[in-house]
Amino acid sequence: MQFLVRIDTARAYELPPDERAELIARERTRGRELMDHGVLRDIWRVPGRRANVGIWDVPDADALEQALESLPARPYAEIDVTPLATHPLTAEANPG
Asked: Does the pLDDT of residue 94 top 90, yes or no?
């Protein structure tokens, strides 16, 4: 199941610089792990904000919750999740 996930991490930038740098390094490592496992399919920065949007691919909403909770920046993040469904145009292009 795919989800569009918007994560705003602006609050993390209120941390002292050394704590923030360590948090960002851990977040980057975890993000790469999630990408390697196919959970985080794509990610983009939101220009002008301390935020990103991504396509997450997991079996269900519970698995998404577990993946999001594994993010080191989770305590500082505002997260918005939108479940995605197949669009008829996509279904026509990829008959199953």
From this structure: no
